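Q&A FORM
Asked by: J.P.
Topic: structure of SLC13 family permease

PROVIDED:
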Amino acid sequence: MDLWLTLAVMAGAVFLFVTEKLRVDVVALLVAASLLVLGVVSLPEALSGFSNQATVMVAAMFVLSGALQRNGALIAVGDLLARIRWPWLFLLVMMALVTCVAAFVNNTATVAVFLPLVLAATTANRWAPSKFLIPLSYMSQTAGVCTLIGTSTNLLIDSMARETAGIGFTLFEFAPLGIVFVGICVLYLMTVGRLLLPDRGVPGSESADHIGRYVAELLVDDGAAVIGRRRGEVLADAGDDVALLAILRNGVAMRGQDLKVEAGDRLLLRGLWQDIEATRKSLKLKFDHVARDLDGDVNAERLHVETMVAPGSHLIGNTLAGMRFGHTYRARVHGLHRRQLGIHTPLDQVPLHVGDVLLLDAPAKAIADLRIDRGLIVLGSRAQRKVDTTKATLSAIVMAAAIAVAALGWTSIVASALLGCIALVVLRLLDPDEAYEAIDWRVILLLAGIIPLGIALQKTGGAALAANQLINLVGHYGPTATLAAVYLMTSTLTEFMSNNASAVLVVPIAIATADSLGVDPKPFLIAVAFAASTSFATPISYQTNTMVYTAGNYRFSDFVKIGMPLNIIFLITATLLIPRFFPF
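REPLIED BY: S.T.
REPLY: Here is the structure written out as tokens.
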């Protein structure tokens, strides 16, 4: 009975992860609570994810990475890019720098720092950012598998392996195979990838004035040309590139083709920003001031600035109205850009997602405040904030010391990372509040909530059942073919759901499969680690893909076209080389 209950909970979790009907951390906590209420796991087992060393280690690494980011150490590294004037060399150096950083620093933090730097450098050189941002994401993922601490997935798999199979990984045990993957990724992106990467234009040029298509909410004021028009006639004088999503009256989307526009209504329009602006002017529509006390000095210079909602941002799940965004940031939101633009509610009532881009109308002096907010990434070409050289250097030394202490075997990586966090606070490189803010609590709760599912799969025999099915399917071809099947299973799951969630599902199966075959489980665990951390074929599979998808104005098909061949190459490489580096 427990087995069927576990499988039912797992199926529900996979459905929610894939459809994104709930946030991943909420799904994970729902999984843990369901298993506890159904009696599949005990209370200590349900709460074991919170005390798991992977959860603690990931939190500590967020703090160490946060110090590097906050004190400007990574910006100092990225400034090298601004001096390069040849596109191929820029791409090569960018990938080399990202590799060096992402091998030890959380890859979403790495991309969050490099993203505005790459945008600034490419715009200054009149290069299309779309030629460089997918490589930025792909390299951050590939570099992350080079070390135990490069990605939370490696730490999670190491923890689960120690608890269930009594084996684990050293800090640099992934490195030999990881370096091969890095080399393959660089070669692919410098050759085939460069031919496949699209040219979406240069921000600031006539062909690409802003990032992608926006949804804008415009006020129908007295004297607007659209008053009295029916829905189908609203955009009669506009171009075909602007679409009317909704007519809002008192905050509610009005229905019916015979509905006539009235003064005071608001129109939700979708299109490229220059087309929306042209339509606004021709139809005499206005941006609603909402709060006129935000105007301040009417003579102050005002700028349009694009800001992205960062991973782990406090804005995620909140609405502009609920946060009093305009008063907090002294800026008005003129447009919203995201993957799915089917919006039919007022913009200030739309819950924000990771990767959303807000087009802000703000005074020039507010830009500095936007830059220091870790919840937003300014996608502009203006100068970055100054680097505190002393603090940046000390933060890098603390990070290096934490890694060195663990690599030398003086203490565990968890202990050294926690000592590093303490050192940051003692040296005042971060204050305690900043340390808490540096942690992406959604990832922590995801890990803590999903770990009990792995325990349930192991405890109820679900992992053994899946392993037997896998062996019946490909086991007679030998352990190498079974290894390829495990890699493919993990890679496929990761394209549509959280990489940590897919790892939790497959690790127990991988261990059970190895036991059934009578071989060392380590090669199968390596396959899961590499497959779960390198997902290239969809923009929703990994947070770094989502970030560059928005900023680079990519299409979904771009990731399929560029990422799918790389996934296949990595599958073949893993199948051939994992048994050589980690014999059965």
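FOLLOW-UP: The chain has a mean pLDDT of 82.
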